Automatic annotation (TrEMBL), chain A:
Its main location: membrane. GO terms for biological process: transmembrane transport. It is a multi-pass membrane protein. This is Amino acid permease. Residues 41-440 form the Amino acid permease/ SLC12A domain. The chain crosses the membrane at residues 33-54, 60-80, 101-121, 150-168, 175-192, 212-229, 250-269, 300-326, 347-366, 372-393, 413-431, 437-453. It is found in: Membrane. Keywords: Membrane, Transmembrane, Transmembrane helix. It comes from Hansschlegelia zhihuaiae. InterPro entries: AA-permease/SLC12A_dom, APC_superfamily. One of its GO terms (cellular component) is membrane.
UniProtKB/TrEMBL annotation, chain B:
It comes from Hansschlegelia zhihuaiae. The lineage of its organism: Bacteria, Pseudomonadati, Pseudomonadota, Alphaproteobacteria, Hyphomicrobiales. This is Uncharacterized protein. The chain crosses the membrane at residues 21-40, 89-107. Keywords: Membrane, Transmembrane, Transmembrane helix. It comes from the Bacteria.
Length: 475, 137
């Protein structure tokens, strides 16, 4: 624990006497490399599955364009989130930020976005795990029929149990298995001999232009987000970063650059080995790419890499979703019953268990593209609120009124650009998945009505504002 | 002067269980049922092929070879190749969707603002000059 009287987030001292106030916080030990590793670790699973649905929505060229456009969207997210999180350096991330900057109903919605985005990502990971094991068993000629639903269920129950016990929910272990998964991508890239086009990868024969025309580029933006979804999780570590002003933007932006390169390499491998129609609906595209090289060791390595990436991601998702739900329970946004901590394992065990049946139900009976879309939509709603929130943040606490860890440049241009790209992505989801978009909106509208008409009466008012800031301007 | 703190009622265990199951029901009815009934993500068209060949499916020799390595013959591949997204849409449907999204955000922000004023009034007071160090946590 350290003294943080003058760290970002504190009110700008009016005099020397003001700076004498003390409070304690988590120890600041993380540097830019840690922030980078955290971000890449969270998102890497997106290279193993899901991104290729962008190919299905618009063709291979459209998917690459969407990948780069989504990169711009996430650069805006990283810039904005670096400023807000390095200032609201409180546990709870975007949920805590919305509580302090926008208001309780917005915070309730942001909490739900986080829970739904992570839970649906967990479900997607479980689906891929089941499909992968079934495909691997068939390809290896193993006797008997593998029921993938059993493995989907097993994945969710096993990881929930680990989280319940508080075991493995550690950054370190996730780093190791993520590193193995990353090595699998690099090995595949080297194996396809990228410097000799035509030897293994055959873009000249497999690329087919834009099967849906220009509209396909717009539509592909929907799954283009999957290349980076979750990178904003880097800023969750703000409270533990040594120098937020330097580490957060540097770590996050280099993370996005890394992912942009990794996504382009993944696209290059996938589109150079598979016809776009197959790639656009494949559940395990990189594993399929390894099969097409004809190398058994590589196929085994990509099987392990894909399995590790999905398990690491699902493990992190259970951890993050349950903590967001737990935080909402503790604040009474949800029943306080969920705010309990296990007496022995010190984990939010009720929040962990609550989502197990939901996750299993979705995993065994819904298609992967649908669960990914539910996750993307929740993330997208969160980015929209983020763009609005940063404008309110600057208005309520102008520069100089509080100490900021990092001030993002060119405000409000990144926020406006982010809002514009979010609008484009809503339109992209509408193309082909319009019913799901409306269902998701209906869910959040009903949930909001429930919060306003019923739930909010159980919440304490003043307790929701805990940052040591002056009164916001205009209140 | 700070406003007197609002003291929320205590919720019974039964009430908490009802609230928890209500959220569960919302997820199942609004998000899961449309997927189960095939009502979501249905924006596709399916073209069928009689006795398909790789040529009829628009696949060149390289594509055909890759399909075969993946374990597909023309008949099996035609189910995937024939399925396309249908991007024709109704402008009314687009306008309704846009209205729902914008309405949701406007409503949420306006209501949040109302609640936020209560939070600030209780934390800092309605009209008192704020302590530059803010409240004590």
């Amino acid at each position: 624990m350290v003294d943080v009287a003058n760290v970002p987030g504190a009110a700008a001292p009016a005099s020397a006497a003001d700076s004498s106030s003390k409070r304690v916080a988590l120890k600041r030990v993380l540097g830019p490399a840690h922030v980078w590793g955290l971000g890449v670790g969270i998102v890497l699973v997106g290279e193993f599955m899901g991104w290729n649905f962008a190919v299905g929505k618009g063709g291979a060229i459209a998917a690459l364009t969407a990948c780069w456009l989504a990169g711009i969207l996430y650069t805006c997210v990283a810039m904005i989130d670096s400023e807000v999180t390095s200032t609201v350096a409180a546990a709870g991330g975007q949920y805590a930020q919305a509580k302090h900057i926008i208001g309780p109903l917005a915070a309730f919605n942001v909490g739900l976005y986080l829970v739904m985005a992570y839970t649906m990502l967990e479900v997607s990971n479980a689906i891929v795990t089941g499909d992968l094991i079934q495909a691997f068993a068939a390809n290896m000629g193993l006797a008997g029929e593998v029921d993938k639903r059993a493995y989907m269920t097993l994945t969710i129950v096993f990881l929930a149990w680990l989280n319940y016990r508080g075991v493995l929910a550690t950054l370190t272990l996730n780093y190791i298995i993520t590193a193995i998964a990353f090595a699998a991508i690099l090995a595949l890239f080297v194996a396809v001999n990228p410097l000799t086009p035509g030897a293994t990868v055959m873009h000249d024969q497999l690329l087919t232009g834009l099967p849906y025309g220009g509209l396909g580029i717009l539509a592909a933006m929907h799954f283009g987000l999957w290349f980076y979804l979750g990178i904003e999780g880097t800023t969750q570590a703000a409270e533990e970063v040594r120098s937020p002003a330097r580490s957060l933007p540097l770590g996050t932006l280099t993370g996005i650059m890394t992912l942009l390169i990794a996504a382009t390499l993944t696209w290059y491998i996938g589109t150079g080995l598979m016809p776009w129609e197959y790639l656009g609906q494949a559940i395990t595209p990189l594993y399929d790419a390894a099969r097409l090289t004809g190398s058994l060791p590589l196929e085994l390595f990509l099987f392990v890499g894909t399995l590790f990436a999905t398990l690491a991601s699902a493990n992190g998702c259970i951890n993050d979703a349950s903590r967001a739900w737990f935080a909402m329970g503790r604040d009474r946004y949800m029943p306080v019953w969920f705010g309990a901590v296990h007496p022995r394992y010190h984990t939010p065990y009720r929040s962990i268990l609550f989502f197990v049946p939901i996750a299993i139900l979705f995993a065994v009976s819904t298609p992967l593209d649908q669960t990914i879309t539910l996750s993307i939509l929740s993330g997208l709603l969160g980015y929209t609120i983020m763009a609005i929130g940063v404008m309110m943040f600057r208005r309520k606490w102008p520069l100089g009124s509080i100490a900021r860890g990092y001030v993002h440049p060119l405000h409000p241009l990144p926020a406006i650009l982010l809002l514009g790209l979010c609008a484009v992505t809503y339109l992209a989801v509408f193309l082909g998945y319009g019913t799901q978009l409306l269902a998701m909106m209906a869910f959040y509208i009903f949930a909001s009505a429930w919060f306003v008409l019923h739930r909010y009466k159980y919440c304490r008012r003043g307790d929701q504002f805990t940052m040591p800031w002056p009164k916001p301007k205009g209140y | 002067m700070k406003r007197a703190p609002y003291e929320p009622p205590t919720q019974s265990v039964f009430g908490q269980v009802v609230d928890a199951f209500l959220m569960l029901a919302l997820v199942l009815v609004i998000l899961y049922l449309p997927l189960l009934l095939g009502l979501a993500g249905g924006g596709t068209t399916v073209k069928t092929f009689d006795a398909p060949t790789w040529e009829a499916l628009g696949q060149n020799a390289t594509m055909a070879a890759q399909w075969e390595k993946l374990g597909f013959d023309p008949a099996k591949a035609s189910e995937i190749i024939g399925k396309r997204f249908d991007y024709e849409f109704s402008w009314v449907a687009l306008a309704v969707t846009a209205l729902v999204i914008v309405g949701y955000f406007v409503g949420m922000l306006r209501w949040s603002e109302k609640e936020y004023r209560d939070v600030i009034a209780e934390r800092f007071g309605d009209d008192a000059k704020a302590d530059p160090r803010g409240p004590t946590a």
